[in-house]
Amino acid sequence: MTAIDTEPRTTTVKTSAVELTGVSHWYGNVVAVNDVTLTVGPGVTGLLGPNGAGKTTVLHMMAGFLPPSQGTVTVGGRPSWRNPDVYRQLGLVTERESVPGHLTAQEFVHASAKLHGLKDAAAATAKAIGIVEMNDAKDRRISTYSKGMRQRTRVAAALVHDPSVLLLDEPFNGMDPRQRLHMMDLLHKMAEQGRTILFSSHILEEVEQLSGTVQVIVAGRLAASGDYRHIRRLMTNRPHVFTIQSSDNRGLGAALMELESVSGVELEPSGLQVRANDYGTFTRTLTKVARDKDIRLTAVLPSDESLENVFSYLVAS
Amino acid sequence: MSPHVNLIETESLEKRYGGTVTALADLTVTIEPGIVGLVGANGAGKSTLIKLSLGLLEPTGGKIRVLGLDPLTDGNAIRARVGYMPEHDCLPPDVSAAEFVTHMGRVSGLPAAAARERASETLRHVGLYEERYRQIGGYSTGMKQRVKLAQALVHDPELLLLDEPTNGLDPEGRRAMLALVHRIGSEFGISVVVCSHLLGEIERICTSLVAIENGRLLRSASLSSMTQHSDILMIEVDDGEDALSERLSGDGLAVRRKDRVLMVTLNGDNTFDMIRDAVADLDLSLHRLEQHRHQVADLFREEASHV
């Protein structure tokens, strides 16, 4: 890995939160976003939802492209609609990839710096290009870039004025594995500097790696928000499923079945499937039961705790 | 299908476009039956390999054989036995899925009646029911992907080439598509070569993996060999990581901490018992105990760190 060669002048930036209060948006009779209240603070947050759930509408309202039909949208405490000042602290990377191919990255990012009216546009350009690690290719035309390079160029243009809030709509689309890892590193670094980063994605494994904090929108409504592991714990009506491997699966299964906190046990080729209706008690008791029976635990896997499971529970309910 | 016929075999395969761009340079690889993931950076040569396999392009050097046949001389025979799902949007908007898939069946050589029956059956397999009589132009991305898969399957091929089948799908759509691909590979016994950038998907459905880089072979291996266990145990408890870490270190184990996860080096089966007893003694909630596996992504992480 090459380090960022243009070290940001300030390692921490001013932090701003994005807040939606009772926000709805409708297109004619179609309600795209329905009474959503949420706050996105510093760090990386994933914005999730099925196709057509209203993710892009939410991002566009945050970016001041659309007015809320009802409610208020603020960035750093000030409304985003009809408030050009908001762009001093906000950057947006849209889903649609539209970059002028006849420009170089240098020219494109510099144009963005000038549009923001930055005093030292050249220095800001150099810094933004450094952050996305595009120094080597910055003087080639954008039309010759790979998808990941174009995406990074767009991020640089959105970053050039050192915004405290960065919104990204499907930033990983079409990127190859290495470009994905690179972009994830980049978002992480920017979040560590105190920026508020909100990105939408369909690839739940990646959201899981990048951030535990999610905002889930289903059919225009906020279905859940926060750390997905906590969200899972709150779904007390669904038993937690664990896959356990041990030196004596059958013996352990029999012993676990005696516990109040266990509602079902199955012997599967992959191991013992245990459904626990009381998460706290079960996870606290398991090791003690195993020790009493002198059974060696070689694996304990929560098998429905992944973001993918949590998401499918939210969408189904 | 004879299990001894390799899906795709190449020897020093080379493809240059014009005089300047080299898409494939000296690629030698043997792809055996199964569900095979084909990965590589953008521009590594994946699409070129697929086009060469279908006989749509001519190699500028080396050899390629598909199902034992030469794509240059037996292109038609290969296309009759291979189904191809392209990445880009390639469907006509103004016909129904039923008409389109029937048409593609006829193009592949099925008689009219058989093509209609197969189209109906295939569309049902991929999960398109009444919608099939509507025009494709009004379909969602997920439905379009299903039509693309159905037209690749309609002539009952031996080998299916899928280029980014989950592109543009939402989580539910991806889950359904992956389940379908896995079913085609395991239950229908059709070999599948699937291109994807999402290594998690490859890990989930594939039996082996071929990685190409700059037109050359980077790695070809079975998935199980790439995702082997390492000797690191990962432990997650709810609160009390510090106490547990201290206790296990005190017991003489090598403990590292990474965020919420404790990584303990496995030192004989006793390690398992020491962890179990430590968690029980400290009255902690054991959330996860798992032997660390290597990931396909490690292939690219190692590479990236060399750059």
Write out key terms for the chains shown:
heterodimer, A: 317 residues, alpha/beta, Rossmann fold, Alpha-Beta Plaits, six-stranded mixed β-sheet, four-stranded antiparallel β-sheet, 10 helices, 33% helix, 28% strand, elongated, disordered N terminus, B: 307 residues, 37% helix
Please render the helix and strand layout as text.
The complex is a heterodimer of chains A (317) and B (307).
Chain A (H helix, E strand, L loop, with lengths): L17 E10 L2 E11 L2 E6 L6 H8 L7 E6 L2 E2 L10 E4 L11 H11 L5 H11 L15 H13 L5 E5 L7 H16 L3 E5 L3 H7 L2 E6 L2 E7 H7 L5 E7 L2 H9 L4 E7 L2 E6 L2 H14 L4 E6 L4 H10 L1
Parallel strand pairs in A: 3-8, 3-9, 6-7, 7-8
Antiparallel strand pairs in A: 1-2, 1-4, 4-5, 9-10, 11-13, 11-14, 12-13
Helix pairs in contact in A: 2-3, 2-4, 3-4
Chain B lengths: L7 E10 L3 E11 L3 E5 L6 H8 L7 E6 L8 H7 E4 L11 H11 L4 H14 L15 H13 L5 E5 L7 H16 L4 E5 L3 H7 L2 E6 L2 E7 H4 L2 E10 L2 H10 L4 E4 L2 E5 L4 H12 L3 E9 L2 H11 L1
Parallel strand pairs in B: 3-7, 3-8, 5-6, 6-7
Antiparallel strand pairs in B: 1-2, 1-4, 8-9, 10-12, 10-13, 11-12
Helix pairs in contact in B: 3-4, 3-5, 4-5
